[in-house]
Amino acid sequence: MKNSNLFTEKIECWEDWGRVYQSIPAFERLAAFIMEKENLPKAKITHLTPGTNAVFRAGEYVLKIYAPKESGMDQTDSRRTELFAAEHAEKAGVSTPSVVAAGEIEDTYSFAYMIMRYVRGKELGQVLKDSNEEEQFWLGRQLKRLTNAMNMPCAPFNNIQVISDPDRSKRWKSYSEAFRDDRAAYLKEHDFGEFVFTHGDLCADNILVEEHGKQSELMIIDFADSVLAPECYEPSLIAFEYRQYPAFLRGFWEGEDLELAAGQVFHGILIHDFGGDIVRSAFQGATGFERVKELYEQILGMPFFSKL
């Protein structure tokens, strides 16, 4: 049976969704209906770290409601991706919140949703700020262990083509035409190697640290950006995201050749969906680069790689 009074906000474009997706008043009735439908305890919804979709805490659960197609962003692949990723991570022995329910509600709009167990943990970014170098190093080693477990070949689980899809070059549009041409030629000519499962966005908000006595364990959350990609894809974002924590990066790349690691970061960031934005934020004047070689030289000059 279709409802028509649980969600009353107007969604006709992405700006509309951006205006309401964090609004508790806008979603509380819809959230209550979903929890009741799934036979889960009633609970007031509260805010969690915002992302692309509407994400709230409801008691001991996390409720994610995906943007409807009227927003201009079809989230069908995102939900399918997250469900696949949860199963993949579990098989790989990677700790991630368990999915307890998933479905769709026909209201004013068609809302897909997913419910996971709430995890009590601190975001990795905050933990790193409060940690000494030895602790940061150990956390880096843990993340490397988890990425090694996750980044394995698997069956296709969405329709994303990380290298050939022209939409994934949009974040490079502000760069010089010469650079964009050189990047396009490099992508066409270079062999990026075997494709594996990648989380795609291992930023500090998407990694939680659970404390078990004196031991800490990392838990990975939010697999909405997971893709099949070359192995270089995952560590490229990590190098930029945690560049202010060299001890953490030493742990991540312990025992590996740093020159090879720098090349890995270079290749990964060239094809990363967020690559253009990340590079522009990291390097002053990046949009004026004319050759991809200039980007590689800048990566070699990053504090972690500069001793090469």
Summarize this structure briefly:
40% of the residues lie in helices and 17% in strands. It has eleven helices and ten strands.
Helix-strand layout with pairing:
Blueprint: H1 14-20, H2 24-37, E1 45-47, E2 54-58, E3 61-65, H3 76-92, E4 99-106, E5 110-117, E6 122-123, H4 124-129, H5 133-150, H6 177-189, E7 195-198, E8 207-212, E9 215-220, E10 227-230, H7 233-241, H8 246-252, H9 258-271, H10 275-282, H11 292-300
Helix pairs in contact: 5-8, 7-9, 9-10, 9-11
Description:
- The chain has 308 residues and is of the alpha+beta class.
- It has 2 domains: 14-117, Phosphorylase Kinase, domain 1; 122-300, Alpha-Beta Complex (Aminoglycoside 3'-phosphotransferase, Chain: A, domain 2), CATH 3.90.1200.10.
- Helix content is 40%, strand content 17%.
- It contains 11 helices and 10 strands.
- It has a 5-stranded antiparallel sheet with strand order 1-2-3-5-4. Strands 6-8-9 form a 3-stranded antiparallel sheet. A two-stranded antiparallel ribbon has the order 7-10.
- Helix 7 (233-241) packs across helix 9 (258-271), helix 9 (258-271) packs across helix 10 (275-282) and helix 9 packs across helix 11.
- The longest helix has 18 residues, at 133-150.
- The chain is globular, with a radius of gyration of 20 Å.
- The termini are far apart.
- The mean pLDDT is 93.
